[in-house]
Specification:
single chain, about 450 residues, alpha+beta, Glucose Permease (Domain IIA), 11-stranded antiparallel sheet, two-stranded antiparallel ribbon, about 15% strand
Length: about 450
């Protein structure tokens, strides 16, 4: 019975330790990922620190960095809470193991006293010969054998429990040291956050002094972005028009074939009727069958011209099935401006995608298999439009491109390198279903 209890306790501790290690490693990975993003933004901000003229990219980078620092502190709080739970559980386990060890030692001491009282062979023989019959004598012999074996097992249990207790005490001590380290890290991060908030306040003060120039820069930038977005939508509309024209031509060809089949069937039916009348025979019922077959061959039509072909339909379905798991268009980056409506002072504007700050000269990658339908140039920067069935992905603000119109691309294939906006390297990434912009955040994989 005690063996089963010890085995259960061992398995419980093993599974609990595995779950704890898994949760701890997940929090640690998340914290490290956040720190990498903070460091990337800081490098970009350091490069622009001497610029007297503020840009929206700099402000977005600073605001995003502060948000990430707050998120990192939140993760550290989760780690501390998680450790507190571990410390509580391990403290209870140590108390339980000490209690079990005390009970096992107490029982073992009783066994030793019994063994000492019956240690000589004469006493054992007397214990056996005092049996009332042979069966009882046999049982007493077996009892003496089992008693010796149980005493050895009990000693093993004591050693095992002592080992578990020592291990848990070491783990508990490690937990306490980790908590102390995390509390120190938390204080350090809070101090950094305070300094960055002071920097943010200085930037806001600087903006208020340069408000007129800053607003003009935003308006100019958004006009340029709106023009690029119109060009992209026009390019997508042309792709839809081409697909529509092709589908309509195929439909007309199918309709001509259908009408020709009906005409041929009518001629065959008329000939069969004429022949039957000439021979003074009843008109065969089968003479009307070709007409019915021809009418059944009506061409299929589709409202979605972009998925009219089986290949396009498969590609579109594959793209959609990867919602939430598409790779990022850059290997390392941070979203500094989200999808949708934004407001700067009295002015508001729409972001048809997301803005990603990344490392200088970072390679830009296709997020899925597809075909390049346009490589455009706007104000000395390139953009690439890739078709994935009824879906399109757009990569804007490229310094250089390594693909051309009509090229087939594969997932994660490099298509160019990112350019800098106000000395900060950033990519504007968009996803469209037809001409309708989608929020890329819901399509890209979590970091």
């Amino acid at each position: 019975m005690k063996l089963n209890k010890l085995l259960f306790l061992f398995l419980f501790l093993l599974s609990a330790n595995f779950a704890v290690a898994q949760n701890s490693s997940e929090l640690k990975r998340k914290k490290e990922a956040i720190q990498r993003e903070i460091e990337l933004l800081q490098r970009n901000l350091t490069k622009t620190a001497k610029n007297k003229k503020l840009t929206q990219s700099q402000i977005n980078a600073l605001n995003t960095k502060i948000s990430l620092m707050q998120e990192k502190i939140s993760v550290i709080n989760s780690e501390i809470k998680h450790l507190d739970n571990q410390i509580h559980e391990n403290t209870n386990t140590v108390i339980n193991l000490k209690g079990q060890l005390s009970q096992l030692k107490k029982e073992y001491a009783g066994m030793i006293r019994f063994a000492q009282r019956n240690q000589n062979a004469y006493d054992k023989m007397m214990f056996v010969f005092a049996a009332s019959d042979f069966n009882q004598a046999y049982k007493r012999i077996k009892y003496l054998q089992q008693f010796g074996q149980y005493r050895k097992k009990q000693a093993g249990y004591i050693q095992g429990t002592q080992k578990d207790l020592n291990y848990k005490i070491v783990v508990l001590d490690k937990n306490l040291k980790q908590k102390s380290s995390l509390l120190h890290e938390q204080e350090t991060e809070k101090d950094k956050l305070g300094k960055n908030k002071n920097e943010q306040a200085q930037v806001l003060n600087k903006i208020s002094k340069q408000e007129k120039q800053y607003k003009q820069d935003i308006v100019a930038r958004k006009k340029q972005q709106a023009q690029i977005d119109r060009n992209i939508r026009a390019a997508i509309a042309r792709e839809i028009a081409i697909a529509k024209k092709k589908a309509e031509e195929e439909a007309r060809a199918a309709e001509r074939a259908r009408l020709a089949a009906i005409a041929a069937a009518e001629r065959a039916r008329a000939a069969a009727v004429a022949k039957a009348k000439a021979e003074n025979k009843p008109v065969p019922v089968a003479a009307a069958a070709p007409v019915a077959k021809a009418k059944a061959a009506t061409a299929n039509s589709s409202n979605n011209y972009l998925t009219a072909t089986p290949e396009a339909a498969r590609l579109s379905a594959a793209f959609e099935s990867n919602r939430g798991s598409l790779p990022w268009p850059v290997a390392a980056g941070t979203t500094t401006e989200s999808f949708g409506k934004h407001k700067e002072g009295q002015a508001s504007y729409d972001n048809a995608g997301i803005t990603i700050q990344t490392a200088e000269g970072a390679a830009v990658r296709a997020v899925f298999n597809g075909k390049v339908t346009k490589v455009g140039n706007a104000l000395g920067r390139y953009y690439v439009l890739i078709k994935h069935g009824q879906f399109f992905t757009v990569y804007q603000n490229l310094k250089s491109v390594s693909v051309g119109q009509g090229d087939d691309v594969s997932t994660k294939q490099s298509i160019g390198s990112v350019a800098s906006s106000g000395d900060i390297p950033e990519l504007q990434f968009q996803i469209y279903r037809g001409t309708v912009a989608q929020n890329p955040a819901g399509w890209l994989s979590a970091k």
